[in-house]
């Protein structure tokens, strides 16, 4: 398989490139020959660098750290714009590589996806079961066994104001401030098109002073 050297702009065999795990294809962008030429041309400069910089390794490390902290946001924006530009300019190459990578690692990828799904389902079932067994009676009593929106006292359920799918923290999901009593009709609305509007109304009701 051929690869283009970014220095001499010649198509060469992959064996003519050094390995580099940080690159997408696992190879350096410059061929071995160009790399050797560069090493030879900068030999004196590197020798001076090693004599002046290496004895002050700790000081240089501190200076680099200080510079990074001062230019952190600037570098972050620069890196982000670089990656966006790279993706836009190499869409076909990235797509082809992703396809090859998926075919070569299909079982591993599917296994990871399965584990993530299983973990999500297990956590969701645990949270719902825990609320049903241990917290539901307390929430119903706190809310006077009434839906907190329409004040109905039939077909009551416990609603998560912050959904389980949006927050991985068990503490916040199972907190009493995140749970409220609703009837089945209002609960359906909470998970329908009026979800955000209804949740806002619930939060206003919770924070408003009781008469």
Describe the protein's architecture and organization.
The chain is mainly alpha-helical. The protein has 9 helices and 6 strands, in the order E-E-E-E-H-H-H-H-H-H-E-H-E-H-H. Among the domains are: 1-43, Wheat Germ Agglutinin (Isolectin 2), domain 1; 132-207, no CATH class. The strands form 3 sheets. A two-stranded antiparallel sheet has the order 1-2. A hairpin with a 7-residue loop joins strand 3 (17-19) and strand 4. The longest helix is centred in the middle third of the chain and has 37 residues, at 106-142. It is elongated, with a radius of gyration of 30 Å. The mean pLDDT is 80.
Short structural summary:
The chain is mainly alpha-helical. It is built from nine helices and six strands. The model has no long low-confidence stretch (mean pLDDT 80).
Q: What is the quaternary state of this protein?
A: single chain
Q: Figure out the total of helices.
A: 9
The largest beta-sheet arranges its strands as 1-2
Uncertain residue ranges: none
Structural class: mainly alpha
- If you average the pLDDT, what whole number results? 80
The strand count comes to 6
Helix content: 55-70%
């Amino acid at each position: 398989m051929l690869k283009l050297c970014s220095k001499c702009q010649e198509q060469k065999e992959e064996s003519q490139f050094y390995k580099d795990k940080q690159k997408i294809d696992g190879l350096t962008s410059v061929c071995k020959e160009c790399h050797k030429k560069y090493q030879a041309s900068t030999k004196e400069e590197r020798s001076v660098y090693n004599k002046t910089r290496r004895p002050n390794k700790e000081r240089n490390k501190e200076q680099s750290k200080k510079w990074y902290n001062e230019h952190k946001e600037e570098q972050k924006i620069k890196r982000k714009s670089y990656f966006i530009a790279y993706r836009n300019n190499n869409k076909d190459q990235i797509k082809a590589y992703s396809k090859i990578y998926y075919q070569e690692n299909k079982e591993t990828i599917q296994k990871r996806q399965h584990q993530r799904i299983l973990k999500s389902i297990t956590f969701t079932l645990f949270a719902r079961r825990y609320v049903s067994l241990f917290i539901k009676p307390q929430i119903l009593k706190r809310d006077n066994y009434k839906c907190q929106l329409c004040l109905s006292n039939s077909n009551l359920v416990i609603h998560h104001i912050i959904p389980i799918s949006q927050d991985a923290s068990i503490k916040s999901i199972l907190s009493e401030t995140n749970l409220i009593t609703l009837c089945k009709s209002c609960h359906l609305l909470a998970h329908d098109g009026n979800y955000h509007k209804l949740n806002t109304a619930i939060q206003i009701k919770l924070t408003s002073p009781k008469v």
